[in-house]
Amino acid sequence: MPRKVSHVTEADHAIVTAAIAEAELHTSGEIVTVVAAQSNDYDDIALVWASVIAFLAMSVIALFPDFYRSFYDRLTGGWGHELTSNQWLGTVIAIGALKWIGMWLILLWRPLRLWLTPRAILAGRVRARAIDLFKVGTEAKTLGRTGVLLYLSLNEHRADIVADEAIAAKVSPEVWGDAMAALIDRVRAGQPGEGMAEAVRRMGVVLAEHFPRGSENPNELPDRLIEL
Length: 228
What we know:
Layout: H1 10-23, E1 30-36, H2 43-63, H3 65-76, H4 85-106, H5 110-115, H6 119-137, E2 147-153, E3 158-163, H7 165-170, H8 177-188, H9 192-210, E4 225-227
Parallel strand pairs: 1-2, 1-4
Antiparallel strand pairs: 2-3
Helix pairs in contact: 1-9, 2-4, 8-9
């Protein structure tokens, strides 16, 4: 049986679970926390970069044909036969294909692929993943529509908060800014558990203000930190 890979420590789990329990003592809101190593494989980004590099390589050869023909002559010591137009075109295409394959292989190294992905795309993919998880595990899972998801994607160093309709109607996304900042600061410092726990505490303050705990407050969503 394959060993489960953990992105955070048992201590992180305990810290986050305790923070959720404490926050929910004062609110009817339900906080769900999810941590993932990465939100997307970014295969399309690798495809784009490989295609760009291949196109640039072929364009440079097309712009400076005399230089590359001279290079071919030096490479063959002047004994190579004169390439026809079709043979030269085939050579250029072959070089472009080799460049494409080489770049694709280089981008199999995920850290480089992430580094070459624009920030806006990273944020968009993390947001999309958070929304997907919210729809599956949080949306409409509480009687009062008071569930809220805190999602952390470690490799992208990004997080997101998605709230159910009752919360979204009263709390604008900007209100979660302090919680998000506290989370990201601690993740960058290598403390993902502390970051999520602090974000939960600040989210709890906001929820308690708008959705104070009532006489009936069933625990409808998991309090533990979920790893994907």
